[in-house]
Amino acid sequence: MASERDLKRRIKAVKNTEQITKAMKMVAAARIKKAEDVLKAARPYSKLLKEVVQDLTAGMDEVVHPLMTVRPVARTAYLVVTSDKGLCGSYNNNLLKLVWSTFGTVPKESYKLISVGGKGDKFFRRRKMEIDKAVTGWTPTFALAQELANLVTDWFLDGQVDEVKLVYSQSISAITQKPVVERILPMSPEKVDEPKGAGGGFAFEPSADAALNILLPRYVQNIIYRVLAESRVSELGARLKSMSAATDNANKLAGELTLQFYRIRQDNITKEILEIVGGAEALRASK
Amino acid sequence: MSVLTVEVVTPEALKFTGQARQVQLPGVLGEMGVLPNHEPLVSMLNPGVVEVRSPEGTRIFAVAQGFATIQNNKVVCLVDDAVEAGKVDTASVTEKVARLERELAESNDERIRNQLAFLKAQLSLKG
Prior knowledge:
CATH architecture of the largest domain in chain A: 3-Layer(aba) Sandwich
CATH class of the largest domain in chain A: Alpha Beta
Number of helices of chain A: 6
Distance between the termini of chain A: 39 Å
CATH class of the largest domain in chain B: Mainly Beta
Number of helices of chain B: 2
Number of domains of chain B: 2
Order of helices and strands of chain A: HHEHEHEHEEEH
Radius of gyration of chain A: 29 Å
CATH topology of the largest domain in chain A: Pyruvate Kinase, Chain: A, domain 1
Strand content of chain A: 5-15%
Structural class of chain A: alpha/beta
Shape of chain A: elongated
Largest sheet of chain A: 5 strands, mixed
Order of helices and strands of chain B: EEEEEEEEEEHH
Distance between the termini of chain B: 34 Å
Number of strands of chain B: 10
Helix content of chain B: 25-40%
CATH superfamily of the largest domain in chain B: F0F1 ATP synthase delta/epsilon subunit, N-terminal
CATH topology of the largest domain in chain B: ATP Synthase, domain 1
Oligomer: heterodimer
Structural class of chain B: alpha+beta
C-alpha cells in the first residue's frame, strides 16, 4: 500500500500532466481552425483549374501529354507526409504502418522516397531506408508544394520514376483520419461526360498544347498543396483527439488517487484514535 | 454598359475580386487589354503586371506565371502568386533578385527565370 506522501506526490504529478495536455488540446483546437482556413482558401483556385483542364481536354479527341504517359512501372516515387511533432496519438503510426506494408521491404531500386515531416524522417533512418529528399519543420505553403511538385515531375519526365504516389492522412472529419496512398503521376485525364456550362468554346492562346504545358504541372502542384494542407488538418485533429483523451484520463486518475488518498488518511486517523483510546483504557484499568 | 467581373486567384487565396471597365494582362503573346464582351478565351500569362481599371480607380498587381480565363464578362486570373502595389516588401525582394540572378547565371533554369521575372515585376510597381 502506498503511503500518504507517495500518493500526494503522484496526485500532483498527474495534475501537472493534465495541465499540459489540456494546454496542448487548446492549442490544437485553435490551430485546426487556421489549418482549415488554409484548405478553404485553396478551393477557388483548384476548382477553377479543374474546370479549365476539363474544358481543355474535352475539346480534344485524344489527350497526349508527357505527364500522362503510362509506362510499365519499374520504379515508383513515394511522397510521404508525416508530422514534425509527436503527441498526436496514432497519427504517424498508422501512416507509417501503411508505408511499411506498401514499400517497406522492396529493394531500393524500385522506389524513390521523399519524406516530409520529422517523424517520417526518423522512421526511415531507423530502418536504414535511403531518403532522396527530406523536408522537416514544414508548413503547408504553396512554395513548398511547388518545390516538391517540380521535383517529382522532373523525375517522372526524365524517366527516373514511372509513377508518383502520395502517402498521407486524409481528414475524414475533425477527429477521424485515414492514411491513404494516392497516385498522381502519370495523370489520368478526367473525362467529363459533357462539357460544363458554356465551356468548350474557349480559344486558347497561344495554343491548346501550350496551355496543357502550363496547366498540367500546376495541376500536380495544386494536388500536392491540397495534400499538405489536409495533412496538417489531420495532424491537428489527431492531436486534439488524443490530448482530449489524455486530459480526461488524467482527470479520472487524479480523482481515483485522491479518493485513495482520503481513504488512507482516514484509516490512519482511525488507527491513531484507536491507539489513544486503547492507551487511555489501559491507563485507567491499571489505576 | 456592361462591366467586367475580375478575380485574381492564387493557390493560397483569392487575392482580389471586383468590377472593372478594363483589364490589362501580361499574355504570353504580348500585353493585352480586355474590354467587356470579349470573346471566350484562355490565355497563358507571363510573370508581369495586371491592371484592373474601374471608375473607382486602378488596382495594380504583380503576378507570377499562370493563366487567365475570359468568359461572359468574367476575367479570372489564376496565377502562382500575386502581390498588390503598395504591399511589396522591397528589401527582401531585392535581396532575392540578387540571389536568383546568381543562380540563373549558373543553371539557366526556366523556373528561376520565371521567378525572377515575377520579383522584378514587383519591383517595377514601386516606381
